[in-house]
Amino acid sequence: MDHIPRWFRGIRLNYAENVLYSPTPSSPSTASTVGKEDSKIACTEVREGCTAIRDVTWGQLRAKVALLASAMKAHGVVKGDRVAVVASNSVDTLAVFLAVTSLGGLFSSSSTDMGTKGVLDRLLQIRPRWLFMDDAALYNGKEVDLRVKMAEIVEGMDKVVGFEGVVSMPRWEKPLDVSKVPRSQTLVEYLEDATTDKLQFERVEFADPFLVVYSSGVN
Q1: Potential cystine with 83: which of 63, 100, 196, 197 (Cβ 3.0-4.6 Å)?
Q2: Dihedral angle sign, alpha carbons of residues 96, 101, 104, 106
Q3: What is the CATH number of the domain that holds 83?
Q4: What CA–CA distance (Å, rounded) separates 122 from 127?
Q5: In sequence order, which residues have a C-beta less than 8 Å from that of residue 188 and are 6 or more positions away?
Q6: Is residue 206 domain-resident?
Q7: Which of 107, 82, 87, 217 is nearest to 163 (CA)?
Q8: At residue 63, does pLDDT exceed 80?
Q9: pLDDT digits (tens, 9 = 90+) for 97-122
């Protein structure tokens, strides 16, 4: 395609809102929690090697996304901004995704086992405002410290206009010390700037993008 097709002109919506809420049966344009009540399970997180399994309710997920979205907004994230993660498949990653899209931003991700050059090849294309990154990973039963890679990525992003820094997400219960990683802060520190625990949604055009993915190209 040589251009982005435009469908349903004049319709405005938000992806995260449609994930986190349901339409009210009597008024489909009004959000409700029908079928997604606070106590119902929204997803089940299974970490590498089945080392930890936990259910997350819709109420917990909405609260997590609300706090994160508020902190992002306080840190300058607005409609059209890119926010990336280098992280595992987890509830934390899902929350970042939904928080970004709730603000009308674009989300992109890379895996923790990708090399620094590969991650930077992606990030330098999209020029994110923030990078959220796991501080460690578990691979084949072995814990991998990601702080060196984190510092290398930040260094590689040094001249990118608009890049604010990296938010370190704890892989384990106790976050690793990232004080020696330039332009970094822990997720707890980042969330301290949240000003509300209420979910708010930036409704965008139907054709507006919200996800950046990559391919190896075409031969």
Answers
A1: 100
A2: positive
A3: 3.40.50.980
A4: 9
A5: 175
A6: yes
A7: 82
A8: yes
A9: 999 999 999 999 999 999 999 999 99
